[in-house]
Amino acid sequence: MKHIDVIIIGGGPAGMSAAIWCKRLGVDHLLLEKEEKLGGQLTQIHNEIIDYPGLYAKNGKVMQQEFAAYFHNAGCLYRLHTKILSIDASSKTLKIQQENKIEKLHFHYLVLAMGSGPKLLEVPGEREMIARGEVYSATADRYRFKNKVVAVVGGGDRALEGAILLADADAAVYLIHRSENFKARSQYVDIVTKKENIKIITNTRVTSIHGEQCVTSIDLLNNKEKAFSLKVDAVFLRIGSKPNSELVKSLVKVAENELIVTDRIGQTSNSAIYAIGDICTNPLFSSIASSNGQAAIVAKYLSLLLTNEQTSKHKFISKFKP
C-alpha cells in the first residue's frame, strides 16, 4: 500500500492552494479530484471576479485556467477522475477508484477540500429539470429569455442579481422568496423593487416543478397555506449552497448546517483530518482568497508537524475546540 504524508481531497481553489504550499514546503502530497479538470466551481462563475487582489478575471473559467497553469508549473502531484470510495480514519487509509482500478492509499494527514454544491429545493420535478440540462446562468444565458417568463428562487445576493440581469434582458421575472425579508445587499433590494418586470413574491415556497420536455409551470404555497401555480419558461434556483461533507460525517464533527467543524488552524475533531474552504465552519465568511489563506495555514502547520520542528510552540492553536 502506497503511503503519502498529506492527501488532499478536492481540486478547487482551496485544494489546489494546499497542494501548491505542500510542494513549496517539500511535503509529500497528493491531490485527488473526482472531475476531469481542476478548479471546482470556478467554471460556473460567469461574471467578472474583481475581488481577488493581483488577478482580474473576466469570469471563473479564466481564473480556473490561471490557477491550473500555476498549479502545473509548481509541479504538484494530483490525480483526476478519482472517486473516494471510503475513508478509514483509524487505519488512516483511503479506498479510491480511478477508472476501473481500485486502490488503497495510506496517509499521515488528510485535508478535506471538497467544497460545496448548489442547495436544492428537493421538490417533485426538480431533479428531472436538472437532468434535462435546464440549469442556467443569469449572466451567460439571460438573452435567451428575452420576452419569456422566468422564476428566480432565493433571497440572497445571487438571486437578486440574477433577477436584475434577466429583467434587464427583457424577461418577465417572478422573484420568489420563502421569507418576508431579503438577505441580499440593500442596493440589490432597491433595484428589484423598482423594476416593473420583476414581480416579488415573498413568504412563499415552490412545491413542485412541471414539464416533460422543458419547464412549463411551478406550484407554490404561501405561509397562509394558499396554493397557486405560475406558468414559467425556466426556473433559476439561487437558494444557497450545501457542503459536500456526506463522505466524512461519521469521521468528524459536523454542524447542523453540515459544515465540518474546525478550529482556527483547520483541524477537525479528528487530529489527523483537516478541512479548508467552503466545506468548514472557519472562517465565518468564505471567499476564494480566504480559502487560499486557509490552505497556506494548514500546509505550513502540517509541514511543522511532519518535520517535528517547533511543534510544541504551536500546540496551543492546534487543539480542537468544538
UniProtKB/TrEMBL annotation:
- InterPro entries reported in the protein's UniProt record: FAD/NAD-bd_sf, FAD/NAD-binding_dom, Ferredoxin-NADP_redctase_2
- According to the UniProt entry, where is the signal peptide? none
> What UniProt keywords are attached to this protein's entry?
Flavoprotein, Oxidoreductase
Which Gene Ontology molecular-function terms are recorded?
oxidoreductase activity
Q: Does the keyword Oxidoreductase apply?
A: yes
Which residue ranges does the record assign to the FAD/NAD(P)-binding domain? 5-288
| Known cofactor(s) | FAD
Annotated Pfam families = Pyr_redox_2
UniProt keyword annotation of Oxidoreductase present: yes
Specify the superkingdom: Bacteria
- Subunit record text: Homodimer.
This protein is called NAD(P)/FAD-dependent oxidoreductase
Give the species. Peribacillus asahii
